[in-house]
Amino acid sequence: MINWRTLMQELDHWHCSGQLVKLWWRDDDADQPGDNLRHLLRLSSDYAVPLGLSVSPALFLPDLPEFVAQHDCTILQHGYAHLNHAPAGQKKCELGNHRPANVITDELKMGAARMHETFSRQFIPVMVPPWNRIADKVVAQLNMLGFTGISTYTARHSASEQGLLRCNTHVDIINWRAGGAFVGTESALALLTHHLTMKRANRADPDEPTGLLTHHQRHDQSMWQFLDDLLDKTCGHPAVRWLAPAKLFAAVAH
Ligand SMILES: [Zn+2]
Known about the structure:
It is a single chain. This protein is α/β, with parallel strands linked by helices. The chain has helices at residues 4-16, 35-46, 64-69, 101-119, 136-142, 185-200, 221-235, 245-248, and strands spanning 21-27, 52-55, 74-77, 123-127, 149-150, 160-161, 164-166, 171-172, 174-175, 181-182, 210-214, 240-242. It has a single domain, classed as Glycoside hydrolase/deacetylase (TIM Barrel, Alpha-Beta Barrel). The strands form 2 sheets. Strands 1, 2, 3, 4, 5, 6, 7, 8, 11 and 12 form a 10-stranded mixed beta sheet that branches. The chain is globular, with a radius of gyration of 18 Å. The structure holds zinc ion.
């Protein structure tokens, strides 16, 4: 059984071998101020853990920019309008092969201009594809559009591709197949310790920071409690470093 002790033992392994456990935090779908977004930002601030918020440029409401400007967080671009263009029965996808590449890139370009203009220095040109899915033909265009990074889900195969630095996420605390409920403490800790042990064994890129993935609009009490516990325990461990998204994505291979 995997529990908090398992995680602490894994962190201790890293500490004993003099290695840092690099973590980062991405939260998706910020579109307006609200209690959940406030709660999320408070956690980030209370624990001094940097937060990357992904925002869809065609979706956010006018009061979001001023609200996030009052907080210490980094904004990433979450596709364009978070619309599904896959036919019924297929996995949801906005940036897939269902539309011509130029139609998608025109949207992303327009979106990036809006993000730069609205969020100014809080925004970094990193693409977070909705549903963590993106066609290769779109990835190939991103650098030309000004993007320098990309983030999806599961361990990366390569740190840099097509002029983009990739830092994925690995610990999604939501079980989407179960209607968006909490995956549970054991499953969330299993995802986290699995990526750490894979890195330690060189079976996953040891340089990829392990990414926590949250969706604040969906959080219930059990998820808030898990996050509080996770931040509390990891921040109290000497091997752990929570990295700021802006720094994480600053080391771009040109
Ligand atoms: Zn999303």
